[in-house]
């Protein structure tokens, strides 16, 4: 949603969602660090009760460009730690797109039956009624009140963005249903909350914007796998929708509605078990908050077991990583694509590593080095970003996307972290405007410029099995974190 992610670039009349990952470095809520924590603390200022006008949602307007903002880049740390500021004023809730407007798969897009209990279908399609998205891999997720399984205690949400570039399950309140959302118990117990009773909310930062909402406990089921009693973020929770901290709103545009996000939520299956281990050590800017009231929240230090969690590591089995399998595409793309999400690496016959895989050892946030045209830069492989994003001034740009007159055959070299050359990866870049005119949902040659990193988004995944091994978990012959293909 990576790294997560309004992240909306437009090419009229097509709405294209740019999900630039939040994997990164010091301030992205969907990323995280090592379990010892390394972020810098902030000074807590208790905010005052707001007044004035409400925070406006980002809506469907296009940003100034497709480039990832330098302040929240997957390649660069965000702006230095600072004192948590007084929240922006608000008096009425921000608008939320109703779940009924998100669309449902047509008969021809019915997901295939899972082949095994550790496999669930992935669908890449564009079936929203009033805009289109490209390269958005969706899965379905069932949320239940912890320990409950009755029909009134569970809700299934489709169109959940599958994101290897972030960590944690985040669902938009309107898609979950307001009445059901309130049944999920609020997370409490921030380390610096002297009462231990205030609800915990989160500002999750992504390269393209932020999500804001409460954190709640839920049993999360994907296919036949259940993560019991984990913390999830309820985006745009009506209790908190009218108030967002200034530290959060200053980091980009809101992605608190289905239309802004291009999905009903995010399933972050990156390398970490919890989304921001540094916040377990000390409060971080624009991250977790404890809220005695919905209009009075303070930057919080949150124990790992209360943080938004990677559902995969919480499974009882097949919990050391994932595989995304998507088919190769024709040169002009495809109207829709069906693939598979496989849980576990080397845990059973259907998820073994190939005989001679390319293995990139990565940091806990998935970072490694890519060299492109003699320039080495930080890089990630991220299913939640819908293009290949990299700097190349020689490629013409139209409506924020690369638009060369002829298809460009290019390559870049990936280096394992730390240092050995692993693979030279060929790729191509086509004219994005030409591709968008086709109205297809899947393209493997869609790209856009960013200034300082190489982001291997969903186009990299087509025609490959891409393995994401979790940090500290044995996955085949070695422990994660690593990416293999």
From TrEMBL:
Residues 46-100 have a biased composition (Low complexity). Transmembrane segments: none annotated. Residues 1-26 form the signal peptide. It holds the Pfam family DUF3443. Residues 101-110 have a biased composition (Polar residues). It comes from Paraburkholderia hospita. It comes from the Bacteria. Residues 31-116 are annotated as: Disordered. Keywords: Signal. This is DUF3443 domain-containing protein. InterPro entries: DUF3443 (IPR021847).
């Amino acid at each position: 949603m990576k790294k997560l992610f309004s992240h909306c670039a437009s090419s009229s009349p097509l709405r294209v969602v740019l999900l630039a990952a939040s994997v990164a470095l010091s301030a992205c809520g969907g990323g995280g660090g090592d379990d010892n924590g390394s972020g810098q603390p902030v000074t807590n200022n208790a905010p005052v009760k707001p007044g004035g006008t409400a925070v406006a949602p980002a809506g469907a307007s296009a940003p100034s460009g497709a480039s990832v903002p330098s302040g929240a880049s997957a390649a660069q740390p965000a702006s230095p730690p600072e004192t948590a500021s007084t929240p922006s004023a608000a008096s009425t809730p921000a608008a939320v797109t109703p779940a009924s407007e998100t669309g449902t798969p047509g008969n021809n897009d019915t997901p295939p039956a899972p082949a095994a209990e550790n496999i669930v279908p992935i669908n890449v399609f564009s079936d929203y009624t009033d805009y289109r998205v490209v390269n958005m891999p969706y899965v379905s997720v069932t949320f239940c009140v912890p320990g409950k399984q009755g029909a009134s205690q569970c809700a299934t949400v489709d169109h959940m963005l599958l994101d290897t570039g972030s960590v944690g399950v985040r669902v938009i309140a309107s898609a979950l249903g307001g009445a059901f959302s309130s049944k999920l118990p609020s997370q409490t117990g921030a380390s610096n909350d002297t009462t231990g009773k205030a609800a915990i909310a989160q500002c999750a930062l992504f390269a393209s914007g932020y999500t804001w909402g409460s954190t709640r406990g839920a049993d999360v089921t994907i296919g036949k796998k259940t993560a019991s009693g984990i913390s999830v973020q309820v985006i745009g929770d009506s209790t908190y929708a009218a108030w967002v901290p200034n530290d959060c709103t200053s980091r980009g545009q809101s992605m608190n509605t289905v239309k802004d996000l291009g999905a009903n939520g995010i399933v972050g299956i990156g390398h970490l078990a919890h989304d921001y281990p540094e916040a377990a050590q000390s409060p971080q800017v624009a991250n977790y908050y404890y809220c005695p009231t919905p209009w009075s929240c303070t930057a919080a230090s949150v124990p790992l077991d209360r943080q938004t969690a990677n559902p995969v590591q919480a499974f009882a089995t097949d919990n050391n990583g994932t595989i995304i399998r998507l088919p190769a595409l024709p040169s002009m793309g495809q109207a829709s694509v069906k693939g598979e999400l496989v849980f576990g690496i080397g845990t059973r016959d259907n998820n073994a590593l190939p005989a001679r895989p390319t293995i990139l050892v990565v940091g806990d946030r998935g970072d490694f080095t890519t060299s492109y045209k003699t320039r080495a830069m930080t890089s990630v492989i991220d299913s939640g970003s819908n293009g290949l994003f990299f700097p190349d001034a020689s490629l013409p740009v139209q409506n924020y996307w690369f638009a060369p007159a002829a298809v460009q055959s290019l390559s870049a070299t990936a280096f394992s972290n730390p240092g050995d050359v692993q693979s030279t990866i060929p790729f191509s870049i086509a004219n994005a405007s030409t591709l968008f005119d086709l109205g297809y949902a899947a393209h493997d040659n869609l790209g856009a410029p960013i200034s300082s990193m190489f982001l291997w988004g969903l186009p990299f995944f087509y025609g490959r099995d891409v393995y994401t091994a979790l940090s500290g978990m044995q996955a085949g012959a070695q422990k994660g974190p690593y990416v293999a293909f």
